[in-house]
């Protein structure tokens, strides 16, 4: 064979080897890319054989509150499903192995720390290490549920606002007339004074409800000006202090700022502060302390109202702020909702936390009002 022919064969062999190596590198690159896509998928990915976990990605580890994958590997997927739903999952896996389609289905997972996660699970057949397996995709529904709850609350607020606008105006005029004639009758029939006092008290309660409904029906903040929150808090404390002393309650304002000025509607913010302090006082029928802390950063002023009551029961904590929901015999179920609406109209927010040592209502108001 000539040197030229041998050179051509050698060149072809080199080219062939290079192509194989390039193909191998491409395969390795694609495998690594696929591994990363699966590992860092926003959904949990689990691969099982005979119901036993063979693989779980990082997202699944976080969902189940595991510190390492070894806490999940080689365990049955059924161990992480609520006992009431295990038979359902078994049936779906059996159907899947028989070639039937397994559509997404909601399940309750029990995490390693005992907490609960509401999820949607979908399963498809696959191969793992050259053996038949089940590829399970788990989607966390927590954010979706939060969004749905927010939408429902928003719809309730909208409906309540529309009702408020109509009801309040229709009722206010006849109530004013009734109150006027009642005062005339009271002077003519002095021997029935006790009855008139009861009727007058109930009319005043109706007017209070109407005022709260009207506040709900007027979401726009109109009288905006610079207000010193230290002065405003002191005014509210002075207003409520007599009632607090009679109930053996001490109101302690603490100011961690020197000026604490914000742009707001003074009367509306005063109404919010009165509502939250009154709620704190009512949470302590045997007396105690109400702490009011005011502090300011570069962007917001934070006001905290903390009581020493027994706290809000866990079963009703999620309903606080719903229209017309109240635990008080004489409550309207509008106070907290109206207060939240006022703060939100100031581009602020209200956060409520509670335990057996008491409840803390935290109000954030931006220093500059924007809408």
UniProtKB/TrEMBL annotation:
One of its GO terms (molecular function) is phosphorelay sensor kinase activity. The keyword Transferase applies. The keyword ATP-binding applies. It holds the Pfam family HisKA. Keywords: ATP-binding, Kinase, Nucleotide-binding, Phosphoprotein, Sporulation, Transferase, Two-component regulatory system. It comes from the Bacteria. It is an enzyme of class 2 (transferase). SUPFAM superfamilies: ATPase domain of HSP90 chaperone/DNA topoisomerase II/histidine kinase, Homodimeric domain of signal transducing histidine kinase, PYP-like sensor domain (PAS domain). One of its GO terms (biological process) is sporulation resulting in formation of a cellular spore. Its EC number is 2.7.13.3. It catalyses: ATP + protein L-histidine = ADP + protein N-phospho-L-histidine. Coiled coil: none annotated. NCBIfam families: sensory_box. PANTHER family: PEROXIDE STRESS-ACTIVATED HISTIDINE KINASE MAK3, SENSOR HISTIDINE KINASE. This is histidine kinase.
